[in-house]
Every structure is written in C-alpha cells, then in structure tokens.
From TrEMBL, chains A, B:
It comes from Amycolatopsis bartoniae. Its EC number is 3.4.13.21. It catalyses: Dipeptidase E catalyzes the hydrolysis of dipeptides Asp-|-Xaa. It does not act on peptides with N-terminal Glu, Asn or Gln, nor does it cleave isoaspartyl peptides. This is dipeptidase E. GO terms for molecular function: dipeptidase activity; serine-type peptidase activity. It is an enzyme of class 3 (hydrolase). The lineage of its organism: Bacteria, Bacillati, Actinomycetota, Actinomycetes, Pseudonocardiales. InterPro entries: Class_I_gatase-like, Peptidase_S51. Keywords: Cytoplasm, Dipeptidase, Hydrolase, Protease, Serine protease. It comes from the Bacteria. Its main location: cytoplasm. It is found in: Cytoplasm. Belongs to the peptidase S51 family.
Length: 236, 236
C-alpha cells in the first residue's frame, strides 16, 4: 500500500501543492494516469482543472471522478488523489456514487492514494476528527480506513486570547468517546505509508499524538510511526 | 413559545452564565423547576451541579435529565435548559434517550427552552451549522426545530494571519448545499423568542445574517428578527 496524506494542500505564499513537491514526486513515481476526486468542493470541473495543471509537470494525466465512468478511470489509473474542502460533502458523494469501497479496494492492491485535508480525513477509519462543518449528512461517518488511527489535519496549537474550545480540547472530547489514537498534523506536514512503514514528513513543527489516558506526545518530522499501523481502535 | 438561545455560556472573566443574567432572569420569570440536559459533556453529575449552583439565586430547582424519569421531570418543570459542549454527543444522547421529541413538544406548548452553544444548535432544524467535531455519530442531524433557520454560535470574524478556512467560508459552503438562512451569533449575544417575536440581545457586536445569494448582513443587538420565523428553508 502506498499512501501520501497531506495535512493541507496550500502553504502561505506558495502555489497549490508546491510545499509538498518532493513528497508528491516520490508518490507519483511510475504514475501516468491519476483519478482526481473533487467532491469536497462544489465546482468539480474547476477543481479538477486546478489539479491537472498542478500535476502536469509530473507528467501525470488527470481525470475527474465526476467525469465518464469513474470505475473505468480508476482501473486505468495508477493513483487516486482525493482533494480537500468539506469532509461531509466529500464522504456523502463517495457513498452516493458508490466509490468509497472501490477506492479502498484499489488502495489495498497498490493504487497510490494521495489525500489532502478532507482527503486525508476520509483515509481514516472515520471522519470523526475532521474540523469541517457538517453541512450535509453522509449515511455514515465510516470512511476508507487506509490507516487504523485518526488524523486531525490543519492542527492548530491554542491561540492566546482566542475564546471557545481549542483543537486540543476537541480531540480530548473525541478520546472521551473513542479509544483510538489521533495524530494531529500541523500545517505543512504529511504522512507517507509504504506497506508496513509509516513516516511523518514536511515541516519540522511536526505533529502531536493524542491517546486516551496519556499526555499528548510531540512527533518530529522524519519520525517513524510504523507502530501506529498495528493499533486496534475502539469507536463508540 | 418562549426561547432563550445563547451563543455561549461563559464570557471572559465572568462566572458561568453571568454575562446573560438579565436575559436569564426574564426567561426564568415564573419558573420554579427546571430540567437541565447535560449530555453535551461527559460528566453529567458535575455539569448539573454547576448549573444548579448558577441558577440557585434565581430560585430555580434544577433536576438533571440523566436522573430518574426525565419525562416526569419535564412534566413537573416550567423550563428546560440544554447546556453546551459537543453538539454531536448531545444530539446522539437526545435520540438514544428518546428525549428530542418530548422536548420539542413541550417547548411548543409553553415550557421555556434555554440553550447555550450546543443547546442553541439543537434548537435549530438541524445541527449542520455547529462548530463542533463529529466525535460520535447521531442517527440524524435533524434537531428540535424550535426556529426555522440555522444558528452558528460563537461566530468568529476572520483572524488575520490565521491559515485554514474562516467561519464565513464554512457558512458559505453550508449555503452552497442548503437554502436556509444562518444567523451567525458572536460571543456574548443571544436570541429571545416569545411566540412570533424574535429579538437579538447581548453584546452590541451583534450577529451576521448569511443568506444564499446575498452579501452577509450585520445585525445589531436589539434588532427585531421576527421575520426570520416565517422562512421556509430547503436542506439538501
């Protein structure tokens, strides 16, 4: 299995996906055709065109999952990229178009899976650690489960003076209900999975690992997180 | 129908519910017994004790909806207060304990409904404009529908330099999918409904009203919002 899970798609002052160029190049090695899943945003054509342009320099031909027969496109592709936006809208469409199981199946058999933000959320067992607003109701929060733990993308450390719950408090509430580790990935970081190997990459600010009953653990960029692939979470 | 819907329960530097004392006193006029719904937090006893203490000076006796027979408690009470915390956890418990319909029914027949934050979210037709993390999956996003529009509590204006989507962008995404007005209530504000009259109260910073196809509208504290009770929204 080959996964590249990005916390975010755009870094300040850089072009779309530019900050993760090296990781993308590695993930796209040997990929000639890629299916882009644009359902997290409303404008499927526009979003797909943006991605086609961004991946053109990698020599990758991009097809939108909203065009033609997406199963045929998946079968002809060596990679699938699930873009960010609203996680609830994305997951609802994946169910409505019966694409969740086919994507899970192909990722398990060697099709490269790339996700950013909402696309990273749906690579988890559920979307229960998304930051997004539940603007539509998917039939289930269950997602692709390409890793056995939860990811919180765009992780934000508490902002001094900001009222309301911090992200950390939200994740602690998740852990009150579910016994599943949450990898909180700061902006500019990504996870690379190659079969049983899992590595954190990107910005040195890294990630925080939250587990029930334990203090959050700082994870530096470059860390080997392979043991996380062995966990068996319990969802309420 | 008598509703008091608070954006938040605690203002900086003030005791729990203190900032809304005047509005609370008006809502609790004639109320001797109140049922508190603590399910948005994990510690039901502790949360109920906190509310009992805060409402003691109003001469109100508080019973937790997790204690004894909640339907009997509701029948003996003149008010119900649904506290804040995680909206998904709250709504899941309201369904699991079969309390959503009884609360809706009683609010329609004169039982005062007070909500703060998550308790304000569940007074709307759905929880689709909550800010909370979907840590558990309720059977439906449909909520009590005591008003026919959506509320976004704890509304935050964009923070300069903050990466990630703004609250405004999240609400605009909601409007892409649903044709329902969203009243985005800044901290320290509340809505008071008495039958067909609806008024914004609290901090002068007020609220913003988002509608599909229109620029957001600033609403000052004190504004009469009664026309909002006439709308018929369309959810996707």
């Amino acid at each position: 299995m080959r996964l590249l899970l990005l916390s975010n798609s755009t870094a300040p002052g850089r072009r779309y996906l530019e900050h993760a160029g090296e990781a993308l190049a590695a993930a796209l090695d040997g990929v000639r055709r890629l299916v882009f899943v644009p359902f997290a945003l409303a404008d499927h054509d526009g979003y797909t065109a943006q991605v086609a342009q961004a991946l053109d320099s990698y020599g990758v031909h991009v097809t939108g999952a909203h065009e033609g027969d997406p199963i045929e496109s998946l079968d002809a592709a060596q990679a699938v990229f699930v873009g960010g936006g609203n996680t609830f809208r994305l997951l609802r469409e994946l169910y409505a178009r019966e694409l969740l199981a086919p994507i899970r199946h192909r990722a398990g058999r060697g099709t490269v899976y790339i996700g950013s933000s909402a696309g990273t959320n749906v690579a988890c067992p559920s979307i229960r650690t998304t930051n997004d607003m539940p603007i539509v109701q998917p039939p289930s929060f269950e997602a692709a489960g390409l890793v056995p733990f939860q990811i919180n993308p765009h992780y934000l450390d508490p902002i001094p003076g900001h009222m309301g719950e911090t992200r950390e408090e939200r994740i602690e509430q998740f852990l009150e209900e579910n016994d599943v580790p949450v990898l909180a990935m700061r902006e500019g970081t990504w996870l690379t999975r190659v079969d049983s190997s899992l590595t954190l990459g990107g910005e040195p600010v890294g990630a925080r690992l939250f587990r029930r009953g334990a203090a959050p653990e700082e994870i530096e960029s470059g860390a080997d997180l392979s043991p996380l692939l062995e966990i068996a979470g319990r969802y309420r």
